[in-house]
Amino acid sequence: MTVQNHVFDVPYYQPIADECALFETAFNKGLPLLLKGPTGCGKTRFVEHMAAKLGRPIYTVACHDDLSAADLIGRYLLKGGVTEWVDGPLTRAVREGAICYLDEVIEARKDVAVVLHPLTDNRRRLIIERTGEELQAPPNFMLVASYNPGYQNVLKQMKPSTRQRFLSTTFDFPDAETEIQVVAKESGLDVERTKNLVRLAGHIRGLSSLDLEEGVSTRLLIYAASLIAGGMPVDKALQYSVVEPLSDEPDVQVALRDLIAVVYG
Amino acid sequence: MTVQNHVFDVPYYQPIADECALFETAFNKGLPLLLKGPTGCGKTRFVEHMAAKLGRPIYTVACHDDLSAADLIGRYLLKGGVTEWVDGPLTRAVREGAICYLDEVIEARKDVAVVLHPLTDNRRRLIIERTGEELQAPPNFMLVASYNPGYQNVLKQMKPSTRQRFLSTTFDFPDAETEIQVVAKESGLDVERTKNLVRLAGHIRGLSSLDLEEGVSTRLLIYAASLIAGGMPVDKALQYSVVEPLSDEPDVQVALRDLIAVVYG
Amino acid sequence: MTVQNHVFDVPYYQPIADECALFETAFNKGLPLLLKGPTGCGKTRFVEHMAAKLGRPIYTVACHDDLSAADLIGRYLLKGGVTEWVDGPLTRAVREGAICYLDEVIEARKDVAVVLHPLTDNRRRLIIERTGEELQAPPNFMLVASYNPGYQNVLKQMKPSTRQRFLSTTFDFPDAETEIQVVAKESGLDVERTKNLVRLAGHIRGLSSLDLEEGVSTRLLIYAASLIAGGMPVDKALQYSVVEPLSDEPDVQVALRDLIAVVYG
Amino acid sequence: MTVQNHVFDVPYYQPIADECALFETAFNKGLPLLLKGPTGCGKTRFVEHMAAKLGRPIYTVACHDDLSAADLIGRYLLKGGVTEWVDGPLTRAVREGAICYLDEVIEARKDVAVVLHPLTDNRRRLIIERTGEELQAPPNFMLVASYNPGYQNVLKQMKPSTRQRFLSTTFDFPDAETEIQVVAKESGLDVERTKNLVRLAGHIRGLSSLDLEEGVSTRLLIYAASLIAGGMPVDKALQYSVVEPLSDEPDVQVALRDLIAVVYG
Amino acid sequence: MTVQNHVFDVPYYQPIADECALFETAFNKGLPLLLKGPTGCGKTRFVEHMAAKLGRPIYTVACHDDLSAADLIGRYLLKGGVTEWVDGPLTRAVREGAICYLDEVIEARKDVAVVLHPLTDNRRRLIIERTGEELQAPPNFMLVASYNPGYQNVLKQMKPSTRQRFLSTTFDFPDAETEIQVVAKESGLDVERTKNLVRLAGHIRGLSSLDLEEGVSTRLLIYAASLIAGGMPVDKALQYSVVEPLSDEPDVQVALRDLIAVVYG
Amino acid sequence: MTVQNHVFDVPYYQPIADECALFETAFNKGLPLLLKGPTGCGKTRFVEHMAAKLGRPIYTVACHDDLSAADLIGRYLLKGGVTEWVDGPLTRAVREGAICYLDEVIEARKDVAVVLHPLTDNRRRLIIERTGEELQAPPNFMLVASYNPGYQNVLKQMKPSTRQRFLSTTFDFPDAETEIQVVAKESGLDVERTKNLVRLAGHIRGLSSLDLEEGVSTRLLIYAASLIAGGMPVDKALQYSVVEPLSDEPDVQVALRDLIAVVYG
């Protein structure tokens, strides 16, 4: 699954630490980059932001259990009796000197590693076995991957032989100051009311006793802020955009509502 | 599997809480919506009702173990020697600005998430990799999904990265007043006799000791009411439409018949 | 796998309870019907009987592990260079207003449920996604399914969301009087000698200590009666048609022969 | 995998009990027959013998894990650009009124049961869904199946709904008298020396302490007799045709050689 | 995977016991032969030797997990728009009256047994279902199979119904005298230095305490002898051709080097 | 996945022991070679170096779970209505007399062994069953394979019958002197600062208490040196290129940073 972005307006992104500098260094040195971190903390947005800033198109591939090397490289398709080669998103990125972003890369099938290895060491080559073609990645091609260490299980792990090919950095939710700015800007809600939302988010993320699979994402805060800005009462807006999306367990939902009462009470 | 509904007569639906307002807000803000709740409590009917009210066609997809991204997006089919692209229900919904309803979405294969992610964040884009096409969802496109938290198992769970993209709300059986109205209207049975059926349903749903996988649905009450309205004795009608559909266990069937005797005795 | 029956001679069937009335009511109300019960107690015969009585063709599908939605709905077949759509048995039944009987429905693959859902609620629609066709089931179409609760295991269970769409009734072996009539009529054996066979069957079915997977079916009694009517000694006929078909275990076979000695001794 | 036998010379077969009469009765009554018993006791030979005696061609199908309904019924094959239907062995047997013998039937895939059900009850019909054809089995068609109860495991069992459609009988190794005759006739070894081999076989089959998966088959005795008749010393002949084929375990091989020493010592 | 050998120079083979006589008897009697034994003890070489001696071509098939009946028999291949039947190695062997050698036969898929059964009993027939052809094996066709009892696991075992169709014999490493001859001849190393290698091999094979999956093969001795003959120091040659190929465990490697020190010290 | 290298500039490689001599001997004797060792210690680089030195092209195949024999040998591809045979990398290597390098060979599917066996014993033959072609490997063809004993699990092990066909040697990280040279040369960092990095690597590799899946590779040291040479502060460079790529565990990351503090403090 790919997303091609030819629009070079730089999307809004509020840096957390020095991730922008790291990205630029990796891009300039031709090194692949691995972003680790939880859901909805802005990894995709960050990559889109950097791509635009560097003036490169971006191909985003959301990886999944059945994603194979052919999905990345391309395949022959039969069209009206004629067989035609159709490039996959990785091949297109290499050809155009674009950024290819493999979101949640450990979800992909194992043959993907085969494609990535010669592309992520000093060879920087993409081999299209089916056509016999062999592409030398241009200097402005960059491979970025992400994964969420929180999901890790025994069956799905990145092999060290793949992992040790990437520069890596860990992402986390932005600090309160930054998150308030982001949520207010995206939702149109005033800063004062946004502060409460971000304060609530801090409480939820800090409460390990709640046993949530993940803390509330910035995206859900924006949803909540949007509903409130649209006139929905705060408790309902938070029920639909925070409590229900985070858990199905009645106990956990009660605990979340208690937390809301504390923050808003 | 899709169901296209071009008839805009608004199907009968009796609201339970403020779910209609939530649906309209989500539709207007372009946010995806997740409906949680048990079998046969009216989720499908609700979505059809809202689609008609908003004047949008609806594509319903009942998800299952083998449902893949291609089933939603489309595929090339060979017809009389010519290969032709055939849109899947999701693609059709995006093109027409319709509502796409993914019933029991966690049953679907994991590659479906790949399609949904860029469609459910701020990008709102559907990528048709096979044709190279990329669709920007129009404002009147909406994605609705449902699932039943009661079925959840370890193997099939919605990943937070998918789940935190939806506004969510929980459905439950309607209150007695509403359910009497619905059952009487659908079956043609008089309100007096319908009351007993709904009273029985309340007892069954409340008895956790019975160890039923799910409580009796409104649909089964309508079946029972139909049979009674058609002249079948109450005990037989309830045997065929409540006792037998709910359980194969002789013990549980006896307990259900005892409950019936209490209500009707 | 389908069986089409255009001959409308009503096959012989001896009713056990009010199952004929239930079938007719379900047919008239357009409701699907689920028959539960052990092997060889006459479910298939019953459905064939009712189909003939109601003047409808019948399509019987014996479900199995690999039966998919496409097996029921149809598929494109390549014939001499031309691709041709071929209706599956369910589609044929919907088009002709016939009865479609899904024998042992829980054996089928899970995508079958997707086809059945819109066909078994108030929509009564069959969607043929591959051709883009959508069929409204005519009033004289009826869906009947069967399964054997005795086989149930953890992996194969009917989901409540499917199960609560059917009227259900439990079949069992006919009472002695009826079974004697059936066996005598089918085998040509005199009633006197048939009585002993049915008496034996009662003993076998009642003996839970034997640990048989299922009791002896009416079909096996007919086999035994046929062999005896053809001149085979009773002990040999019962060995080949009752003892050996019921078990491979020497202990169980001895116990069955003891039971035979008691009845015939 | 099928074996067609148009040669009607009756192959040599030495009856053990009244299995010939049972086979003829089943053939005349149109009932399917199930043969149970260990490897190499002559089931295949028996069926070939009866087929020749009844003047019917025989199609033998050795069932296995991947044998599907299509392997039995037939499939479309692409030959030089033209698609041609090719009957499978079961279809050929039904068309010609032949005997179809499914060897080790429980090994086959589960969709095979679907084909066999309407063919083994009073309908006696074979449905070829792919071509839309429906064959009524002629009176001289007969279905015979075999399986070995000794192999049974939890995963592979005949469902009662299939099993209770067959007349069944158990085969075992022939008695000593008969086996001597068979082995001598097949191998050309004199009766005197054959007696020792059959005596040895009796000892091996009786020794449950040896923990062999199966006793020595008549076939292996014929191999041994052939080697001896060809001039090989008895101990070597028995090593190659009895000891080594029965076990890889050094302990068991020693025990078998001890047994040989007892019989021949 | 097949190896066709039309060169009839008899490859060098040093008999261990009377395996040559057994092979010839089996060939003359038309009986299949099963060779059991460890890796690299010369089974393949033996079969090639006998094939050349008997003047028959040989088709060697190295069996594996995915080897199916079609791989042995043949299949239709699409070549330039025309479908062409291509014989598999077994079919070619039957047609030409050659020897077909199935190396490590239990690794193959289970449908292979179906092909072998009618070919390995008195029928000696190969059925090519796809083409409708049926071949009677000529007298100079012979089937040879091998397997290694040491690998046996619960999932992969030869069924007695297959196994009891073969004459069987166990292979082992040659005696020291013979092995010295073989290694010296193949490597060009002088007999004196070869003796040490074979002495070392004897020690390694006898040491059950080392917990090696298999003892050192004659092939590895030839490798070692080749390296030594080419001028490499003995300790390095043995490190690369014996120690490293036998084990990855540091402990075991140390033990092997100690053993080498004892023999060469 | 193959990498073809027609450029014969010998890539820089710093020998560790006598691996170059072993490679040349194996090449000259026509023996296959197995390289064992951890990730990123230079195996691929070594093979490329030797290939260039010997003037042979190299085909590198990164093996994975789904890599099958056909991926190595080739397959028919449909191109514009015409079916065309396309050689796989192994076939190309045999035809051209090149070096074929199977990286992480035990990851490949089991049917690969079938291809390798006749190519790695005295036959040295590659059989292309699909085309009926049979290639005799020329003297300048060589097969090299690698695997990492550290990954070994019960399901994926090299069978002795495959393993005992290769000369084997173990690779490890280069000694400090050599590694400093390599890292400095590749990154452009001065030797003084490189020494610290290699010292750090020694500490990390020696600390078994850290429970890392693998020690830090030379490649990651080069990454770190590159970043430092580019002006990034040492602690950040090590965070992105050593700490984060080695572990997701906060405890382990802290331990690694402590180690860095010790070396740089």
UniProtKB/TrEMBL annotation, chains A, B, C, D, E, F:
Protein's UniProt keywords contain ATP-binding: yes
Organism (species): Pseudovibrio denitrificans
Xref: Pfam families: AAA_5, CbbQ_C
GO function term, MF aspect, one: ATP hydrolysis activity
CbbQ/NirQ/NorQ C-terminal domain ranges (all copies): 179-262
The organism's place on the tree of life at top rank: Bacteria
UniProt KW keywords: ATP-binding, Nucleotide-binding
ATPase dynein-related AAA domain: residues covered: 32-166
Entry's family note: Belongs to the CbbQ/NirQ/NorQ/GpvN family.
Secretion signal, residue range per the UniProt entry: none
Keyword Nucleotide-binding in record: yes
Name recorded for this polypeptide: Nitric oxide reductase NorQ protein
